[in-house]
Automatic annotation (TrEMBL):
Matching Gene3D superfamilies: P-loop containing nucleotide triphosphate hydrolases
Name under which the protein is recorded: DNA adenine methylase
Organism classification: unclassified sequences, metagenomes, ecological metagenomes
Amino acid sequence: MRNIIMYKKGQRSWTRYIQKRVTKANKNFLAVFTGQTGIGKTLGAIEESISIDPLFDVEQQLAFSFSGVMRIINNFSNKQHPLSKKKYKIVIYDEPQIDLSNRDWQSKANKLFNFLLSTFRHQNIIMFFCLPYLDFLDSASVKLLHAEFKCRGWNEKKKKIAEVVGRFNYWRVTRQSYKTIENQEATWFIDPPYVYGGKFYRYNKIDYKQLIRFCLEREGEVIVCENSKASWLPFEELVANRG
């Protein structure tokens, strides 16, 4: 099964996915940024919009009402308006629960809103909503969303993680043999069934000659999780572990 979104060095995965969805797949993209007041929902939506389109115009493409959203979408269709020349047609709808809450979902605005979401696919519009909770939108609107970005705040620990996360390499999940994995410079963590394991390892059928060759050929550092009695490689204990 292929991953929908994969990491590539130097690229933001969601940005690349959204761009590909609207240009190559000829579809729209609808997402919501949720979180408590002041957490940075609008800033997150603006940052992602600029990542997609470096010329994103906050003044022209950010709306605070249903009528404002309609005005922006109409400008995309107006060939005389500068927004009509945009490759990526992005709209940020900030705090839509003011107009469209689940308490008054039968209102005229909500009906028009649902109609809009289900019919503007041909315009390949990217729309980001910013609201405290997902259930502020009615169920019909929620079903049409493609993603939810949950804003959880910021602290020094997360900041340090964010600074290095771009250096990580991610593998897609595969059910094939480990021998098919491409070799590259990395820190390899290998966790085979232990040689002297308990009752659940008695039927171990690992070809250790192949596993030894695989480990020795890896570029970079190799860390193996094994029983302290194992000797199929010249192990050096990294962490003393009881049990």
